[in-house]
Amino acid sequence: MSTIRRFWLAVLVCLVVLFSGWIHLIYSWGIEDPEVVRMVMNVEPGSNLITRVDTGGKKVVALTFDDGPDIFYTPRILDVLREHQVKATFFVVGENVEANPELLRQMVREGHQVENHTHTHPELVKKGGSRIDEEIYRCEKAVESLTGRKTQYFRPPKRLFNDDVVDIAAVRGYTTVLWTVGVENRTTRVPQEMARRVSHRVVPGAIILAHDGRLDRSKTVEALPLLIKGCQQQGYRLVTLDELLSEGRR
Ligand SMILES: [Zn+2]
Q1: What is the mean pLDDT of residues 41-51?
Q2: What is the CA(93)–ligand 1 centre distance, in A?
Q3: 117 CA to middle of ligand 1, Å?
Q4: What is the CATH number of the domain that holds 242?
């Protein structure tokens, strides 16, 4: 092999190594949900943005679900949570609330927390300020009209947000809540592995993201009891977001 060929072969090997390292880094950050492999833009982590709660090592975590209520998956997830006596937090989409009001009432009746995931699930970074505000407000009103309670926490659809999104939510009184580890991801598609992966990655104060709508969530439903058991066997208590925040160190 000529020297020039060897040189280019070495360059190619280096590029492959660098690329695979970059992919590994992306996954190790936990930004692996199918809907979230996008850039997070211009946001300084601060008091209006939460990805994990400092519980001082206390083994408490919050299980959260996005995109419901869904006529097919939400009842199944509620069944699993009831069987395991676990309370969770649902970041609901306003138009799904209007389509499935009884499911929202059931969430609240069974002790779960309901929070804001916009009215129509748009990519907020592509929208103007008034539309962002309207999305949060309409979801808030959809929930409030059924439960009498105003939502306080906001999660941007597809993890797409910037300073404007966080600031507009904050003006409405919201803290933006992301997550520490996601249940659904590109690399783990078997329910047992999904559950095992979360159990291995969970840390005190973690916020776990799962979904109860928008796409096929049958694997999430299957993974859920295994995930709950996996966390509990390690001594973790699964609580609502409010309870997790109340365990946070000030
Ligand atoms: Zn979503």
Answers
A1: 64
A2: 8
A3: 7
A4: 3.20.20.370
